[in-house]
Design brief:
This protein is mainly α. It has a domain of 82 residues: Serine Threonine Protein Phosphatase 5, Tetratricopeptide repeat (Alpha Horseshoe), CATH 1.25.40. It has 45 helices and no strands. Helix 8 runs antiparallel to helix 9. The longest helix is centred in the middle third of the chain and has 30 residues. The chain is globular and about 90 Å long. Keywords: Repeat, TPR repeat. One of its GO terms (biological process) is RNA processing. It holds the Pfam family TPR_19. GO terms for molecular function: identical protein binding. This is Tetratricopeptide repeat protein.
Amino acid sequence: MNLRLLVCGLVLVLGLAGCDSPEEQAQSHFESGMELLEKGDNARAYVEFRNALQLVPTHRETLVAYADALEAQGNRPQAFGLRRRLAEMSPDQAGPTLDLIDRAMELQDWETAENYVPRAVELDPENPRTKAAQLALQYRESHDDLSASREIVQEARALRDSALPDSIVLRQIMLDGMVRDGEFEDALTEINQLIAARPDDIQSYRLRLQLLNQTGRQDDLEAALREMIERFPEDDASEQLLIRYYMSRKDVAKAEEFLRSRVPAEGRAEEERQAVIQFLAATGGPEAAMKELDRLIAEVPDATRYRSLRAALVAQQGNPQQAIDDLQGLLETAKAKMAEEDLSDDERPQAKTVNEARVLLAQLLAQTGNSVAARREVETVLAEDPSQIGALQMKSAWLTAEDKMDEALALLRRALDTAPDDANTLTLMAQAHLRSGDRQLAGDMLSRAVSGSGHAIPNVLRYVQFLVADGKLLPAEDVLIDALRLTPDRLELLVPLGEIYLRQEDWPRTAQVEQTLRRIGTPPALEQADRLHLGMLGGQRRNDDALAFLQERAGASDASLGDKVAQLRAQVATGKTEEARTYLDDLMGEDPDNQTLQFLNAALKVQSGDVAGGIEDYRALVAANPQNERLRLELIRALSLDKRPEEAQEALDAALKDIPEGPDLLWMHAGNLEREGDAEGAIAIYEKLYSRDTGRSILANNLASLLSTAREDEESLDRAWQMSRRLRNAELPAFRDTYGWIAYRRGDYEEALPHLEAAAAALENEPLVTYHLGMTYAALGRTDDARATLTRSVEQAEQIGHAAAMDAKAKAEKALSGLETGQ
């Protein structure tokens, strides 16, 4: 007999409801939650919704209502997760998918949008919302094509006017187009309408700040910032922007007054007090911050947060071990207090604060080389609070360094769910996307980090560097100018702006930056001004004027050795070798024991053709400075240039004996081993170097290349693939060869082909690269191309002759034999 049926039968007879199905119970929780929402009791309504979803995770009505309610309260990230669940529950319905796409685009989550737009096109291609989503992606792809992007903006305007007047996605396209074309007044009108329609969308307020800057409405900035602070009290970036606004006007007192006004009269107010402490440290130095901390530690019932901040300050002052000891003692005390039952809430340490202290301890442990203990602390925090942002950031950084980008990105998305605009999280996401080879998403994250940090200088510089590397000088200029409007006369911003103008050969604006630097007048500013001036002279091919400028600077009474070396190098660069020789002899006559001049003397001899004389000078310098890696390398290079390979090898062996961990010496040694055919020896060295710095693309390339060419096991290939993902958009031929060959090894021949064709065209004397291309032609069934290419590989190898070339020749000959026999 079915005992459950019997029990339920008895319950029904007794008139009880204990055997309602999960669906019925979920519906009951949903209805209760809706009633509570109508009464304005959101917190209890959310509890009911969560209860419903625990019983039936796919309860559609609850998911929709919960997502709508969260969005109405401004919690868009959490609502976004519910929208994603709805879309996945209904893969054959366009509505939930389009809802998810709209939210993804509003949150600038382009990865999600790109994944789901094809589904919307398949399900409902004529839906105006589908067309809007397609336009948004097309506009995103068209940014390098001004004509195409303007056409898309017009299409977006027409679609909005005809079918989607309230579309945020279309409005964003139009706004971006207006800003791009300098239509700032129209954009301000549009953004004000957008804010009226979506008063809880912080991105709109941030764009308004940018437009106020660009239109020169500095007086309106303060009011706009205060409105943002009132509307979004949890957004730290708005407060930081207001502080920087005051500081740009040198109104330190008003900035401090504002921060202190944010501290409530009652309650813990730890975040607000921390902002005051950080401000005091920045404006009054560590002594002012320490004084404030000591006062708070003596006054507040629970000083856990302030003791933690004090430890951080101790570390910044150069005593990390003392800070570690302080934090460990703090955590022991906090643990004991949390276990006491007779403490009030004000006296009891909060779990959040304790976890923040533990993360700080982990950071200091990692900085002092104790990575094992640091990881243990991070895992402890995440076990207690899986959403703790600092711990998620640290663990994701470790995973990225280990080339586990997918795992790192998963953790970072969890961190963004808690704080969507956290600049550190966004920066780490950018780094992970770069390691994955997705520069576009990386750029999006860096751009958001600039906005989320209120144009903080480190975030601005990272984004500018990224844009400049992609040749996007005008956007980089705009980012720097926006930052300079908020913090004028900052050297860190003026210098890269001047460099951009140099690259554009915009001499008038380069001169303006130079003049600004001279007006600032500090020694670093004047040094950068001189550098820009020389850059302009060089860019205008005014070599004699540049040399005269350097001679004048070197001849000044306060000229440094660096000034004199700069003149010497300019003489060499302009072909005035004899003048350089005479000038250097005069300098050495004045200071014969100066080893910098002795080094330059050796280098000039080598460059002038007296290689043997340079070698002798280098030997003398090495004898006097056996731990100087640069001198060792120059000696080895000079010996190689003089065609003395045995002596060069002896010099390398001696250098490695004296400086066994020298990175450049190890790099040279690995290259030699690779050419000699000792792939495993080279791999061992590259592994050592890579473990020290996994961020260097050239190290990743060399190691991945050897793992994929010298080994056949799947584990090595998988590791090579993880390392090489960052290379897929690279322009360097060697990087393209590595990525292409690994794609070939993974069976993705179509992906491999364009990379290997480009690499082989650029590296005409690399038989292994040519062999890789030949093998790809063969895999694609292009037998004639494969035969011709593999034959060329054999010919190249015979001309070169070293062991690695002969290995490539053997592989190519074997492949040719296989083509003839059909194997």
